[in-house]
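Give me the 3D structure for Glutamine-dependent NAD(+) synthetase.
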Amino acid sequence: MKIALAQLNYHIGNFESNTQKIISNIQLAKSKGADLVVFAELAICGYPPRDFLEFDEFISLCESSAQEIAKHCTDIACIVGLPIRNDVLQGKDLFNAAYFIEDGKVKSITKKALLPTYDVFDEYRYFEPATIFKCIDFKGKKIALTICEDLWNINDNPLYVSNPMDELIKEQPDVMINIAASPFSYTHDDERIKVLSDNAKKYHLPVFYVNQVGAQTEIIFDGGSLVFDTDGAMKAEMKYFEEDLQVFDLTEVENVRNKYPQPERLTDIEQIHDALILGVQDYFRKSGFSKAVLGLSGGIDSAVVCALACSALGAENVMAVLMPSKFSSDHSVQDALDLVTNIGCMHEIIPIKDAAEAFDNMLAPAFKGLPFNLTEENIQARIRGTIVMAMSNKFGYILLNTSNKSECAVGYGTLYGDMCGAIGVIGDVYKTQVFQLAKYINKEREIIPINTIVKPPSAELRPDQKDSDSLPEYDILDKILYQHIELKQGSAALIAKGFDETLVKRILKMVNVAEFKRYQTPPILRVSPKAFGMGRRMPIVGKYLT
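Predicted structure for Glutamine-dependent NAD(+) synthetase (546 residues):
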């Protein structure tokens, strides 16, 4: 039996596009001699559909799309994911399911049992967990089909009733197939490989795993579909961050080692770089936009975002707006201009000195006798926010936010100023990682000016300002933030690890106090195991950790 894995980029709710993409890949798989082609979890509607699932018409469109797909399953079978109605008058209204389609008909339905409710997942809000499991008979083989989480951490979820594979193995299946919507993080590929390999060894069955690829607002799917033999050895690793379709012979997977070439594994920074480019591309493509605007300061954050945007959209579609103030250094303006020259994007120079002075004069009676402080700094940032939003409105550009994760974490940013935007490009990338990204972007030639990389970071909102005036050095700050955010370590645990007690408590208080700002920021492209946004839900008025 020859099995094709179709790793595709779906668009949530775009039934016409998704259906045609699935049908064209059925035809492609057929032309390559496949007996069965496998598509991802909820492929028909796209993942995650969220509250679209509450619309009855949405579910009906899923079913009608499945019936259209079925017409093309002649001389080839397919497995495709979709939500289906729960006909029993108990539990949730829907199942997360997969159809096995053969000879133009739905021959079998598999329902998902383990419904993730952690981090970015909220499936138990919509779906009823399955409790009955049965293998699929096809061409003299028994297929144990599972859906994503049903092969992940199956013993420690209180909502879970039974282990699908422990039930399916009783029917003596010949192969495991797992269809998934497994979001990217730069630590996830190794974990994914281990889990699937362990399952192959545990049940002594070959595993065929298909993931989707593409970005759905903040969530990025990296593809990387996998095949393992009965000993848990990886037989194939499909492309990352690209659509791909490959055909595998089940007999060869079971008996022949190292037949299929495997791509070279990417470093963490390479993965983050490629994920962010895909995230920007899909945000624009799926939203129907083509041109981006951002404020370019001469600093490293905006330089990296500009470079990523130009790679994703083409330099001709990116507008960089330089907005020097009376505090901007000559070298910052020159660094920004050098980047524009190196990268070839559009640019405008709009000084804000007159606007800032107008605000100072307007507010002088109200602020009489009070010294220059954070208020005037924030006014400058908000003037810049107004300018880039004006460019967005006037020309139809989409504004890219350039705040990094370190700044987002401690509230080092101005609401309605540098924190505005439609999508946060590097909001899940720590400052130390931003420097690594800049060096990676420059791997073949100087795109980001060297001076931008080596100079001390500064917002330049007052004379001789440096980030280190307000924040700990980033190499220390980021270590503490990573332990706290990604690893969920509280102050006692951090102090026990050797971090300075005063510094730990100061940083954790800054993180907690800044929660109200993060509630008002744009969605952030998720590249880490724990990103700000839907995967991290904290109370604004909570006192814990302050």
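The CA atoms of residues 405 and 427 lie 5 Å apart. Let me know if you want a second pass.
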